[in-house]
């Protein structure tokens, strides 16, 4: 049972995470540390974070669908691969010590930040689009691999997908954002079901935080459509830096 102090720490940060997630992805870089800062064990933090994350991502996915950013012929196969990957990742996470999570992130986050700094643009406007078949193959492969990561730990999933779909898949920012949301929703749902079946979720806290996440996602989705790629890069760099410092501190200090 979560305390009121934990609610006061988690809910505002999940709101901020939802806002960032709707625009650039990577809201878990803010929301998951909130649960850890509140003093919850690692596996319960990951599991409960999936509750709020799934609620917020569902809202943003629906909004992007209405705005035409989600192409069903591409997103539905990706969702199937994402479900399989996330289920496998969540089952693996239940068997791994939290120290492994921290070391893994200390390697992954700087590499992602370097990619963001070096990339001239997050939009693939300067790249020739791939054929539909190659686009589908790249997107499904990424959905499977990132799905494993999201089920295993999660923070940065949206950011990694957005970067990889634009960089490797040569997708436009709008298409990549819509596909990212569809994949991320599938991975959240699959991981959440796995954690629920293993009794790791604090539902009252997760559902309450989820409402804050929905509010943040709603405002973030409006910002995305209004300003688009202009605010994506600084938000990605910021959330990567914040979580890297947090992981570094927890691991070595």
Along the chain, the helix and strand elements come as HHHHHHHHHH
CA(first)-CA(last) distance: 28 Å
Average pLDDT for all residues: 84
Unreliable spans: none
Overall radius of gyration: 17 Å
Structural class: mainly alpha
The total count of strands amounts to 0
Helical content (DSSP H or I, runs of 4+): over 70%
Estimate nothing, just give the exact number of structural domains.
Answer: 1
For the largest beta-sheet, the strand count, sense and barrel status come to:
none
Shape: globular
The number of helical elements comes to 10
Strand content: under 5%
Helix/strand layout:
Blueprint: H1 4-24, H2 28-37, H3 42-66, H4 72-93, H5 98-118, H6 132-152, H7 157-167, H8 173-197, H9 203-227, H10 232-252
Helix pairs in contact: 1-2, 1-3, 1-9, 2-3, 3-8, 3-9, 4-6, 4-8, 5-10, 6-7, 6-8, 7-8
Describe, in short, the structure shown.
It is built from ten helices and no strands.
What keyword list fits this structure?
253 residues; mainly alpha; 10 helices; 80% helix; globular
Q: How would you characterize this protein structure?
A:
By secondary structure, the protein is mainly alpha-helical. It contains ten helices and no strands. The mean pLDDT is about 85.
